[in-house]
Amino acid sequence: MALRIGKLATLFSGSYISAFSSLGFKKLNVRTIIVSRLMQNNFSNQHPDLGAKTDDQEFQKWCNGGGMYHKSAHIDPTAQIEIGAVVHSESVVGANVCIGSGTIVGPAVTIGQSTRTGYNVVFSNCSIGDSCVIHHGVAIGQDGFGFFVDEQGIMVKKPQSLKARIGNHVEIGANTCIDRGSWRDTVVGDHTKIDNLVQIGHNVEIGKGCMLCGQVGIAGSVTIGDYVTLGGRVSIRDHVCIASKVRLAANSCVTKNISEAGDYGGFPAMPIHEWRKQVVSVRQISKEFWHHKKT
């Protein structure tokens, strides 16, 4: 093990060593340097706009956890930034926050107090409320698809100037992606629970107390009321409004507005009792067809 560490240490150029020495990292071990540099390089490749702002001279080691932070960031002394995590310029990290290893907090991001993140989370152009739980591999505030058709019928990249705003006591499952807004902020309300592998597009507004099960896909500019439940693999087309206290069965597809509370299912989504009647009718017709064919 000692030989491996020694070999890895020789990979660093003199400029890296002098840069870390100038920052006062005399007791920083080789493993900490390796992890931090690998995470910053990987982030720079995937996010060149943010990576271009990374300068070794501007970053320092955080005292609690060993991660890196920009000197212009505002971090509460009780926050923990684990090894390999990086907090970029002008970001705000509240009290008792725990930022997992490999997490990237982009410039001007706000993370409320008592929030916990898993590893390899990416925050950019977003604000996170208090007491949130964000699991591994989540991306919040990204550009996403972000294309639209202009007046000449040409598909162009839409400018991304707004944010994604996550409320208080929100839980976001692993590998979920929440895009930032393009004409209004993307919003996730307080006490909402989001399962794994959920995609939330630009400009989506989700009310408080909602529950989104695994593999839900929500297209851009959707508005969802309070206390809505989306079963597994529910899909919602763009520019659709869903009223409060709606429950959608798994694998449903919403293609138009739902204006009344209740249970819905099917493709396209309809009141649950109508969908069940359709399912029974299709089964009955199928049985009659095969019986007639046999006779």
Automatic annotation (TrEMBL):
Q: Name one GO cellular component term.
A: membrane
UniProt GO BP: lipid A biosynthetic process
Keywords associated with the record? Acyltransferase, Lipid A biosynthesis, Lipid biosynthesis, Lipid metabolism, Transferase
The entry lists its GO molecular-function terms as: N-acyltransferase activity
Q: One Pfam family for this entry, by name?
A: Hexapep
Q: Which Gene3D superfamilies match?
A: Hexapeptide repeat proteins
Protein name stated in the entry? Probable UDP-3-O-acylglucosamine N-acyltransferase 2, mitochondrial
Q: Which organism is it from?
A: Sesamum indicum
